[in-house]
C-alpha cells in the first residue's frame, strides 16, 4: 500500500441540485432542519415520518412518506415508495429514540425496541436503497449519531451503545461502497436544544439504589440540552459531507467537540469518562 493511498480519502462524484435526498425523522429537530436546508440546496427531498397524513408544518419541496423504524414491513414499504420516486443521491439516517436508565434496570423489550429503531431499522432502510445508489455510481449516506457514542455517559448505556453501533456500521461499510462512488459518514452532535428531553424514554426504579444519581444526571442532561446548539447548526454540519468531494468518516459539532476529540487523543480514557461524568453531575 502506497503512502498516498494510506493517507487519502477517496474522491467521490458530486451530488447536488435536482438530485433526490432522503431524510428520516423529517418533521422535527435535526431532520426538519436538514430537510429545509436540502430544499434550499435544490434537492428533491423525501422526508419520512410515522404519520405522513398528520404533518403540521409541511415544508414546500418535501414529499412526506410513512416510516416506522420499529416495523420491518413499514421499512420495506417506505423503501419501495422512495425508489418509485427515483434513485436517492443522499440518505440522512436521523430518526431515533433517546433512552436513559440504569444498566441493571433496563427492560429487555425496551432494549430490543431501541436497537431496532436506532440501529437495525437504519441498516435495513440503507440496505434497501444502496443497490440503486450503487448502480448510479454515486451517493452520500450520513448516519446521525451522538457524541455519547464516542464519550459514554452513565445511565445512558443503551443509547450510547446504539449510537456506537451506528458509527461502527458506517465506518466499516465506508470502505465497501467507496469503489462505487458512495460515501458513508457519521455525524456526532453534542447537546442540542430540540426539545428532545420531553420525549426521552426513561427506565428507573424510583426507590432503587440508582435513583438518586440517575435523577441528578437527568436534571443536568436536560439543562445541558436546553442550553445546547440549535438543530439548524447541526443541519449545516450534515451538509458538509454531502457537499464534500472527499467527505471525512466522522464529523462532530457542539459540546466543544474539537476540544473533546483532541483531548481524548492525549489523555487516558478514564480521564475522559470522568470529565463526561462531572459535566453531568456524576
TrEMBL record:
Specify the superkingdom: Bacteria
Keyword annotations:
Oxidoreductase
Q: Which GO terms describe its cellular component?
A: membrane
Signal sequence: where? none
In the UniProt record, does the keyword Oxidoreductase occur?
yes
Organism encoding this protein: Corynebacterium meitnerae
Give the organism's phylogenetic lineage.
Bacteria, Bacillati, Actinomycetota, Actinomycetes, Mycobacteriales
**Which InterPro entries does the record associate with it?**
KR_dom, NAD(P)-bd_dom_sf, Sc_DH/Rdtase_CS, SDR_fam
> What is the protein's given name?
SDR family oxidoreductase
Q: Enumerate the GO terms in the molecular function aspect.
A: oxidoreductase activity
- Describe the location of the Ketoreductase domain by residue ranges: 19-190
Keyword Oxidoreductase belongs to the record: yes
PROSITE patterns in UniProt: ADH_SHORT
Q: Which family does it belong to?
A: Belongs to the short-chain dehydrogenases/reductases (SDR) family.
Amino acid at each position: 500500500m502506497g503512502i498516498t493511498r494510506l493517507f487519502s480519502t477517496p474522491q467521490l462524484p458530486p451530488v447536488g441540485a435536482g438530485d433526490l435526498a432522503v431524510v428520516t425523522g423529517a418533521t422535527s429537530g435535526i431532520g426538519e432542519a436538514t430537510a429545509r436546508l436540502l430544499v434550499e440546496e435544490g434537492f428533491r427531498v423525501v422526508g419520512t415520518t410515522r404519520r405522513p397524513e398528520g404533518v403540521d408544518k409541511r415544508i414546500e419541496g418535501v414529499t412526506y412518506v410513512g416510516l416506522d423504524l420499529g416495523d420491518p414491513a413499514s421499512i420495506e414499504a417506505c423503501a419501495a415508495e422512495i425508489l418509485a420516486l427515483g434513485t436517492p443521491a443522499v440518505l440522512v439516517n436521523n430518526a431515533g429514540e433517546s433512552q436513559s436508565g440504569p444498566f441493571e434496570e433496563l427492560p429487555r423489550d425496551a432494549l430490543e425496541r431501541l436497537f431496532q429503531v436506532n440501529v437495525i431499522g437504519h441498516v435495513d432502510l440503507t440496505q434497501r436503497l444502496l443497490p440503486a445508489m450503487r448502480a448510479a455510481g454515486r451517493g452520500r449516506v450520513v448516519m446521525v449519531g451522538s457524541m455519547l457514542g464516542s464519550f459514554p455517559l452513565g445511565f445512558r448505556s443503551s443509547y450510547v451503545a446504539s449510537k456506537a453501533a451506528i458509527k461502527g456500521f458506517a465506518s466499516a461499510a465506508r470502505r465497501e461502497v467507496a469503489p462505487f462512488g458512495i460515501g458513508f459518514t457519521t455525524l456526532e452532535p453534542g447537546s442540542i436544544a430540540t426539545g428532545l428531553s420531553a420525549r426521552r424514554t426513561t427506565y428507573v426504579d424510583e426507590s432503587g439504589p440508582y435513583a438518586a444519581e440517575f435523577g441528578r444526571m437527568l436534571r443536568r442532561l436536560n439543562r445541558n440540552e436546553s442550553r445546547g446548539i440549535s438543530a439548524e447548526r447541526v443541519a449545516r454540519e450534515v451538509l458538509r459531507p454531502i457537499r464534500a468531494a472527499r467527505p471525512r468518516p466522522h464529523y462532530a459539532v457542539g459540546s466543544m467537540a474539537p476540544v473533546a476529540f483532541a483531548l481524548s487523543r492525549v489523555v487516558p480514557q478514564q480521564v475522559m469518562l470522568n470529565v463526561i461524568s462531572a459535566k453531568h453531575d456524576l
